Amino acid sequence: MLSPALQEKMRNARLALDGATSDNIIELCKRYLALLGEYRAELYKFPDALGINQWSGPFILEDVGNARKAIRVAVESATRERNRAEALLRSFTAGAVMRRSRRLTG
Hints:
Number of helices: 3
Order of helices and strands: HHH
Helix content: over 70%
Structural class: mainly alpha
Mean pLDDT: 83
Largest sheet: none
Number of strands: 0
Distance between the termini: 55 Å
Low-confidence stretches: none
């Protein structure tokens, strides 16, 4: 099972990002992205931690398939969330770079 502490950090980071202000959104987004990376890394380790490859028995193939599918769905969800958060961060940082560039050339 994934660490309850990590799951709680993820939930809190998501809630913080949802309530972000213009003063803290970039920092909160960076923190959330870091936690998403940690979460995805744990998901990739999950099959080994469960020992899925060593399971055997008549109904085990279906169980292995279901476990792998659940892990894949979680990884895909975390990847979509990471992409969304990266796009949000880029939108703020690209805007700041453009404004800075205009001040220097303007």
